[in-house]
Amino acid sequence: LTDHQGRNWVGIRNGLYLYESGHFREVRKLNGDPTGLILSITEDTAHTIWATSLANGFRLIRVAKDKAVEETPVPPSAGLRIVRADTAHGVWLSYGDGQLRHLTDGKLSGCKLNLGRGSFREVVPVNEDEVLAITTFSLQACRHGRVQTMDARNGLPDSSYLTGLFDLNGNLWLMSARGLLRISKDQFASW
Length: 191
What we know:
By secondary structure, this protein is mainly beta. It is 3% helix and 56% strand. It has one helix at residues 185-190; strands spanning 8-12, 15-20, 23-27, 37-43, 49-54, 58-64, 67-74, 80-85, 91-95, 99-104, 107-112, 120-127, 130-135, 139-143, 146-150, 161-166, 172-176, 179-183. A four-stranded antiparallel beta sheet has the order 4-5-6-7, with no helix packed on it. Strands 8-9-10-11 form a four-stranded antiparallel beta sheet, with no helix packed on it. The protein has a four-stranded antiparallel beta sheet with strand order 12-13-14-15, with no helix packed on it. Strand 13 and strand 14 form a beta hairpin. The longest helix is centred in the C-terminal third of the chain and has 6 residues, at 185-190. It is globular, with a radius of gyration of 17 Å.
């Protein structure tokens, strides 16, 4: 992750590191221990760094002023995976059990998706009330607490996507094993 100051944050096997001025500096947990295996990193609109880690269980780590200032354990059954900043002042969290949760002002809301035998590949925030989940076998959106699914049965040309993003014009680009797919802003809005 490259933050708003142009500094690089890197998660590796046993830690979270900040690369700046040609040097890596480790960011440790409040008790001085390494953060553990970093699964995902994002920066929110308030310039807070968030990371998901696996160290004696799944954890959400909040970093402010280049220090871990908060660590929240997550029940192992939930399996916190991906964290992504929304377009306002919160973050979206994906869990191994299919939950997509929006954390804002200390409150959680969201949806439970049907992953089947699949898993989350990527989470793409649309706005503070809507997020797109790219899963093993479909696209699923959590829109204002409701789940909508798009897959090969209702219009997508492929059943498996690896990642995706929205461009500056609001069009959705998806990558599959067959190549790139563009879904226009209007098509996505009408889905």
